[in-house]
Write a sequence for this structure.
């Protein structure tokens, strides 16, 4: 493995050396022909690139953690520099500093929107949809006929643009969080169902035979063998469903909502050209989405510690 | 073909449940109408009436199918503004809107997956890129990007970029990350033994890429292309919400404003057919390619 990495690195060092040379000459040309500002941007980018390249050659745990952080900070710095130096109007693209200032000054609004969209809409729908899917999967699991029929249909529906039913559900359940939760329930149901059904089939005949020799009842077999064995599949579904839940809850608000919520705020602030507020909401959505995913992944780590994908890390 | 009968049964059960739900949800309106007229009606009258309402809470399947047919074949062939009479697609029918959405999706999907493959090649061959970009690519999967799509569209519109391109950008962005993550996994899938063999052949990195890594990554590529095409389609539909003009997303929003439930459902049918069609085409290409490469599952 390391031998082939050597070959690779020699080749790419040469390639990216050439690349850097090209970029440098390009920067000089731009400096002469056009603008100092472009060369400042190129300089920042190149400096960060060289730093990251060096760090990744050194390797080690901390260096590898530092590299993505530097990359992210570079992108933010370039963003701020572009906005400042080219005087981009804030109705088109506000800089990160302006967004951070707006974020800090409107924490109460952001919190209210977060509660409305995430806690009431996404989270309640997520819990309802996932538990309904698991119960359905257990019910279906006893009949091979239903499994054969439901799996292709569920796979098919999971690929459809289900967000499209949002306007219908908003009509049925009203503008408040109930309709958002309903959209989320429908969106998470089928991925979760398909994964759980697949998971419940994951035990092999030998393991099931062992349960039979213990004369375990169906329920004992389910709770002690098949549900634990299904956990990796179920967590796969649960992780996919976190993103779907956020999307469903926010998009459903575009079709009608009370006067708070992240989707509502995004669409109204776009109309008022308050783009710094919009970006603050996006930051909240990003952090909430990643945290939601992270929590589920952490629970997965605790529950399926025995699975090969969780060991050796 | 073993699962043909079970699938048929499940679909049949779903349709039956749909009819039952349609009757149940539309019954209230019929009762109100009867009460307003000063009479009582029993289920024997409610059931047939509930299935043929003008603006039902939940249209019955046959109403949706009829509307779908009317807005596609009927509108284009018989309608005054259809392609037969006027030479261009009718903006009242669904074919035009489906085409607008489909073209934006396809353009974005091609751009997004192309860039995704290129970036994945870079990530596999360069450690600095791997360490800087990969964590962000993975983290971006957990962020509800689709929900932000309408905002990006509005901003691009205010800069003067309008029409097909902004939607294609969203679609590209959404198909980009699944392809990057899947392709990196695929390009890394050759094991040490295979890589060592290439090394004993004194193969260059470029030869390793073309002769080993790219062929080995094909199953991963197609799996992520399927995810990517579905994601970019959803993204395009959501991106069309604030725009007006043409597109399936616009039709959905218009339908919800005017309470045209049957029309919303017909639009959803078109969207589902398109989504299934695109995933199906990718699947077909996949099975062809993998069969030619001797990797058929």
């Amino acid at each position: 493995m390391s031998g082939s990495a050597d070959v690779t690195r020699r080749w790419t060092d040469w390639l990216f050396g050439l690349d850097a040379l090209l970029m440098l000459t390009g920067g000089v040309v731009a400096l002469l022909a056009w603008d100092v500002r472009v060369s400042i941007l190129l300089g920042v980018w190149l400096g960060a690139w060289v730093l990251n390249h060096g760090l990744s050659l050194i390797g080690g745990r901390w260096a590898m953690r530092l590299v993505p952080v530097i990359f992210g900070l570079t992108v933010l710095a370039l963003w701020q520099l572009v906005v400042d130096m080219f005087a981009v109007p804030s109705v088109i693209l506000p800089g990160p500093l302006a967004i951070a200032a707006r974020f800090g000054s409107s924490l109460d609004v952001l919190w209210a929107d977060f509660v409305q969209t995430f806690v009431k809409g996404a989270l309640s729908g997520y819990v309802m949809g996932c538990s309904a899917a698991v119960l359905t999967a257990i019910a279906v699991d006893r009949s091979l006929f239903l499994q054969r029929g439901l799996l292709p249909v569920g796979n098919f529906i999971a690929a459809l643009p289900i967000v499209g039913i949002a306007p219908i559900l908003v009509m049925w359940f009203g503008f408040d969080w109930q309709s958002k939760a309903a959209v989320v329930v429908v969106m998470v149901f089928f991925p979760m169902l398909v994964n759980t059904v697949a998971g419940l089939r994951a035990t092999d005949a030998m393991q099931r035979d062992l349960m039979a020799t213990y004369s375990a009842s169906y329920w004992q077999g389910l709770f002690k063998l098949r549900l634990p064995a299904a956990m990796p599949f179920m967590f796969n579904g649960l992780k996919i469903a976190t993103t779907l839940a956020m999307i469903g809850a926010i998009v459903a608000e575009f079709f009608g909502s009370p006067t708070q919520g992240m989707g509502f705020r995004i669409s109204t602030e776009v109309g008022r050209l308050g783009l710094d507020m919009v970006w603050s909401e996006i930051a909240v959505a990003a952090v909430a989405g990643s945290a939601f995913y992270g929590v589920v992944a952490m629970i997965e780590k605790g529950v399926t510690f025995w699975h090969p994908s969780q060991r050796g890390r | 073909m073993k699962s043909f009968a079970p699938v048929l049964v499940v679909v049949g059960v779903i349709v039956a449940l749909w009819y039952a739900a349609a009757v149940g949800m539309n019954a209230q309106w019929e009762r109100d109408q009867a009460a307003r007229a000063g009479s009582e009606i029993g289920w024997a009258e409610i059931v047939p009436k509930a299935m043929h309402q003008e603006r039902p809470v939940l249209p019955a399947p046959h109403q949706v199918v009829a509307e779908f047919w009317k807005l596609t074949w009927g509108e284009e062939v018989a309608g005054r503004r259809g392609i037969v009479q006027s030479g261009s697609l009718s903006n009242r029918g669904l074919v035009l809107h489906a085409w607008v959405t489909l073209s934006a999706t396809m353009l974005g999907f091609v751009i997004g997956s192309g860039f995704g493959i290129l970036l994945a090649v870079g990530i596999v061959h360069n450690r600095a890129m791997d360490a800087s970009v990969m964590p962000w690519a993975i983290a971006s999967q957990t962020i509800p990007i689709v929900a932000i799509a309408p905002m990006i569209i509005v901003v691009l519109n205010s800069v003067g970029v309008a029409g097909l391109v902004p939607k294609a950008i969203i679609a590209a962005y959404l198909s980009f990350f699944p392809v990057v993550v899947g392709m990196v996994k695929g390009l890394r899938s050759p094991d040490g033994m295979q890589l060592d063999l290439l090394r004993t052949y004194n193969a260059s990195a470029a030869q390793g890429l073309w002769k080993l890594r790219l062929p080995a990554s094909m199953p991963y590529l197609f799996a992520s292309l399927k995810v990517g095409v579905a994601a970019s389609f959803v993204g395009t539909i959501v991106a069309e919400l604030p725009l007006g003009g043409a597109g399936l997303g616009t039709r959905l929003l218009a339908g919800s404003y005017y309470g045209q439930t049957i029309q919303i459902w017909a639009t959803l049918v078109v969207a589902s057919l398109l989504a299934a069609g695109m995933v199906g085409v990718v699947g077909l290409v996949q099975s062809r390619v993998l069969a030619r490469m001797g990797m058929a599952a």
Chain B has twelve helices and no strands. Chain B has two domains: 1-58, 94-292. Residues 94-292 of chain B form a domain with the MetI-like fold fold (CATH 1.10.3720.10). Residues 155 and 271 of chain B are 26 Å apart (CA to CA).
